Amino acid sequence: MSRPMARPFLKMNGLSNDFVVVETRSGPFDPTAEEVRAIANRESGVGCDQLIALDKGDDGVDARVRFWNADGEEVGACGNGTRCVGWLLMQSTGKDEVVLETKAGRLVATRAGERLVSVDMGEPGLAWNEIPLAEEHDTRALDVALYHHADLMAPPGCVSMGNPHVVFFVPDAEQAPVTEAGPVVETHKLFPEHVNVGFAQVKGRDRIRLKVWERGAGLTKACGTGACAALVAAARRDLTGRHATLELDGGELFIEWRQDGHVIMTGPAAVDFAGELP
């Protein structure tokens, strides 16, 4: 089993969705799932929702970024994590805009204020095979019973933001069965890559209260791609307009689904502390 080299890390967070960020320019960094879980463990490791590796870029890219969930699985995208590393790169380079290469494609992060970052998350995937689903369905409103609960009777919507999301529209997000339904729906056979599960309460045309059970991480304080997916899913059903403030446990994100199809996420980034991996 390979072992991560001793190297510095930063503990960062976006709305309390927290990350261990490792720069890999000093040497290869390709942790096993077991090693990721050890780093993410909040009792015996550093503790985080996701591990992020930041490598040098080329061909017009400021950095290449990899993300792992706390369960050790590498994933294509993380909205809050992208904001954090975008802010980190802008601070180190003095730029007001940086380009990041991820498994989900190139993302552009722009300085939006004091410790505020906007990220162009690209266009959402809306076709059933882009989510992906195991079989063809209308992703605007799934006609499949994923979990039996009185608050989850309305058909959920599905959106890919570089990672798969299903969004339930609920009467009260505070009372939604997040920890009960989340892990069941996450691993439902309809989602071959598993899925992030959102519970969205539409409070107005421009405001949504959201809780997210994240694939491989469980209930988190905030989920950036989940916020993007919730706005897109709501706007597709005309429950909201194309821009809204998303209220998450960790704070607020502003999401806009522009007319050109791109989703823009704006929110804070913060550094908690620095350390060194053993």
From TrEMBL:
<feature type="binding site">
    <location>
        <position position="163"/>
    </location>
    <ligand>
        <name>substrate</name>
    </ligand>
</feature>
<feature type="binding site">
    <location>
        <begin position="79"/>
        <end position="80"/>
    </location>
    <ligand>
        <name>substrate</name>
    </ligand>
</feature>
<keyword id="KW-0028">Amino-acid biosynthesis</keyword>
<feature type="binding site">
    <location>
        <position position="17"/>
    </location>
    <ligand>
        <name>substrate</name>
    </ligand>
</feature>
<keyword id="KW-0457">Lysine biosynthesis</keyword>
<dbReference type="GO" id="GO:0008837">
    <property type="term" value="F:diaminopimelate epimerase activity"/>
</dbReference>
<dbReference type="Pfam" id="PF01678">
    <property type="entry name" value="DAP_epimerase"/>
</dbReference>
<feature type="binding site">
    <location>
        <position position="196"/>
    </location>
    <ligand>
        <name>substrate</name>
    </ligand>
</feature>
<feature type="active site" description="Proton donor">
    <location>
        <position position="78"/>
    </location>
</feature>
<dbReference type="GO" id="GO:0005829">
    <property type="term" value="C:cytosol"/>
</dbReference>
<feature type="active site" description="Proton acceptor">
    <location>
        <position position="223"/>
    </location>
</feature>
<comment type="pathway">
    <text>Amino-acid biosynthesis; L-lysine biosynthesis via DAP pathway; DL-2,6-diaminopimelate from LL-2,6-diaminopimelate: step 1/1.</text>
</comment>
<protein>
    <recommendedName>
        <fullName>Diaminopimelate epimerase</fullName>
        <ecNumber>5.1.1.7</ecNumber>
    </recommendedName>
</protein>
<feature type="binding site">
    <location>
        <position position="50"/>
    </location>
    <ligand>
        <name>substrate</name>
    </ligand>
</feature>
<dbReference type="InterPro" id="IPR001653">
    <property type="entry name" value="DAP_epimerase_DapF"/>
</dbReference>
<feature type="binding site">
    <location>
        <begin position="214"/>
        <end position="215"/>
    </location>
    <ligand>
        <name>substrate</name>
    </ligand>
</feature>
<dbReference type="GO" id="GO:0009089">
    <property type="term" value="P:lysine biosynthetic process via diaminopimelate"/>
</dbReference>
<keyword id="KW-0963">Cytoplasm</keyword>
<feature type="active site">
    <location>
        <position position="78"/>
    </location>
</feature>
<feature type="site" description="Could be important to modulate the pK values of the two catalytic cysteine residues">
    <location>
        <position position="214"/>
    </location>
</feature>
<comment type="subunit">
    <text>Homodimer.</text>
</comment>
<comment type="function">
    <text>Catalyzes the stereoinversion of LL-2,6-diaminopimelate (L,L-DAP) to meso-diaminopimelate (meso-DAP), a precursor of L-lysine and an essential component of the bacterial peptidoglycan.</text>
</comment>
<feature type="binding site">
    <location>
        <position position="69"/>
    </location>
    <ligand>
        <name>substrate</name>
    </ligand>
</feature>
<feature type="binding site">
    <location>
        <begin position="224"/>
        <end position="225"/>
    </location>
    <ligand>
        <name>substrate</name>
    </ligand>
</feature>
<keyword id="KW-0413">Isomerase</keyword>
<feature type="site" description="Could be important to modulate the pK values of the two catalytic cysteine residues">
    <location>
        <position position="165"/>
    </location>
</feature>
<comment type="similarity">
    <text>Belongs to the diaminopimelate epimerase family.</text>
</comment>
<dbReference type="InterPro" id="IPR018510">
    <property type="entry name" value="DAP_epimerase_AS"/>
</dbReference>
